[in-house]
Write a structure and sequence with these properties.
The complex is a heterodimer of chains A (213) and B (246). Chain A is mainly α. Chain A contains 9 helices and no strands. With 246 residues, chain B is of the alpha/beta class. The chains are: A mainly alpha (213), B alpha/beta (246). The complex binds adenosine-5'-triphosphate and magnesium ion.
């Protein structure tokens, strides 16, 4: 097993790096998009609600691979050229953002109507009530399911392997193919994923405890 | 006397349900108005239109000089002058008692911190909650939460405070503490509109009584006269039920 690692160290490292890069970009932007569409879905204007519902319905109900393929095969043909890595990262971002939007929306909706009414009757604007009263309470509730979404995101970044995104899973396929050591290779790759997902889960749990105080 | 709240032919529907029927009502500055009536008659709906929590469908509703039915009216401006106290308190669960009272004056009125704290402490002392300023709402009893909620309203220095059954969710031994604070509010000359089942308060503290039934104002009179001689059969029935319950 050691030999596989030492002989393919460069490939593993490239894969690891690309997985980290893709996950980080997708995490940041899916969080931004997810929160944005959640806010749009709970806000009073009907138009925004409809837009948010459509967005979420589309990206939540299509397999991730199909979304990525759209960005890999169709978008480059008509709109803009995208590498496998770019197509995969965009697809993963949109896909995950729909789940995050649903998670955040559920968190906001779990805060009783009375909190908003209390704040509005006290003279606060809708935005102030959201910022000072609703969202801080919703955040506590949303952290644990959000942690799950993040871990899923890191694992789902392996979709890059299908579009030559040079991530861990892609390198694993190449290495397994050239060395014929399929099982060992995938065990090593699994360990690499753990290096990312375990600290992430741990950090989210830490955040949960900190906010609970 | 100038009217601080005025309904002119106001109608309100929930879908097909006609909740408020052609309401005409003038409330003057400094009045303490009690609203009583059977469950589901529309008392909450009526009081919640007064600060725009429920929109009206037709007519005019003028509060502190602004027409709530007018789309150009800035509702937040009106709410600076019109506080509300709820049956279930609705304190901010993520803030301490002191923060609950200080938050809106800080971000809505932009009141400077030291002055804000002084005013907040003064009202919290008045409602008997000065020793709990660092507690969170979940750590307080219902009666304590309601007294903080009244202090929170008072800290905005409002012209009007609306009360929707402020003692209905409280254990009997807590009710008196809250009523005592409400008597104090009345003494400050703040206009009060109070939906209540507390007939003692309605009779002794308020100076006007509205009996509400099926979306209508059936009686609008001096409380003492109303309780001694209700004009309508509906009011007589309602009173006899309440009195036999006590
Ligand atoms: N948000 C709503 N949507 C639909 N119908 C409503 C809504 N709020 C109240 N209603 C209906 O409007 C009518 C008046 O309700 P309202 O809550 O104003 O009565 P109430 O006099 O305050 O009763 P209670 O003494 O039980 O609090 C009732 O028939 C009620 O079912
Ligand atoms: Mg009611």
């Amino acid at each position: 097993m050691w030999q596989i690692i030492t002989n393919n160290w460069g490939a593993f490292l490239t894969g690891f790096w690309n997985t980290i890069l893709c996950s980080t970009i997708a995490l940041v932007f899916s969080l931004i998009l997810g929160v944005f569409f959640a806010l749009l879905e709970v806000a009073p204007p009907k138009f925004g609600r409809v837009i948010a519902k459509i967005y979420i319905a589309i990206f939540r109900n299509i397999p991730l691979l199909v979304i990525v393929m759209i960005f890999y095969l169709i978008v480059p043909r008509y709109i803009v050229k995208l590498s496998g890595f770019q197509a995969g990262t965009i697809g993963l971002t949109l896909y995950t953002s729909a789940f995050i939007a649903e998670t955040v929306r559920a968190g906001i909706n779990s805060i009783g109507e009375g909190q908003m009414e209390g704040a509005r009757s006290n003279g606060m604007t809708y935005v102030q009530a959201m910022r000072y009263i609703i969202l801080p309470q919703a955040m506590k509730i949303v952290i644990p399911p959000l942690g799950n979404q993040f871990v899923n995101l890191v694992k789902n970044s392996s979709v890059l392997a299908f579009v030559a995104g040079f991530d861990l899973m892609y390198q694993a396929q190449l290495i397994a193919f050239s060395t014929f050591q399929t099982i060992d290779t995938y065990i090593i790759v699994g360990l690499f994923y753990l290096i990312l997902t375990l600290p992430l889960s741990y950090y989210m749990r830490h955040l949960e405890k900190k906010l609970a105080k | 006397m100038t009217a601080i709240i005025e309904f002119k032919h106001v109608d309100k529907y929930y879908g097909k349900l006609h909740a408020l029927k052609d309401i005409n009502l003038k409330i003057d500055e400094g009045q303490v108005v009690s609203i009583i009536g059977p469950s589901g008659s529309g008392k909450s709906t009526l009081i919640r239109t007064m600060n725009g929590l429920e929109p009206i469908n037709s007519g005019q509703l003028i509060v502190t000089g602004h027409d709530l039915a007018d789309k150009k009216t800035d509702i937040n401006k009106i709410r600076k002058n019109v506080g509300m106290v709820f049956q279930h308190f609705n304190l901010y669960n993520n803030h301490t008692v002191l923060e609950n009272v200080m938050l809106a004056p800080k971000i809505v009125l932009k009141r400077p911190d030291d002055e804000n704290r002084k005013i907040a402490m003064q009202y919290l002392e008045r409602v008997g909650m000065a020793d709990k300023i660092n507690s969170y709402p979940r750590q307080l009893s219902g009666g304590q939460q309601q007294r903080v909620a009244i202090a929170r309203s008072l800290a905005m220095d409002p012209k009007v405070i609306l009360f929707d059954e402020p003692t209905s969710a409280l254990d009997p031994e807590m009710i008196e503490d809250v009523l005592e604070v409400m008597r104090y509010v009345a003494e400050q000359g703040i206009t009060m509109v109070v939906v209540t089942h507390e007939m003692g308060f309605a009779r002794k503290v308020s100076n006007r009584l509205i009996f509400f039934d099926q979306g209508h104002i059936l009686e609008d009179r001096d409380p003492g006269e109303f309780f001694d001689h209700p004009n309508t059969e509906r009011a007589r029935q309602f009173l006899s039920k309440i009195i036999s319950k006590d």
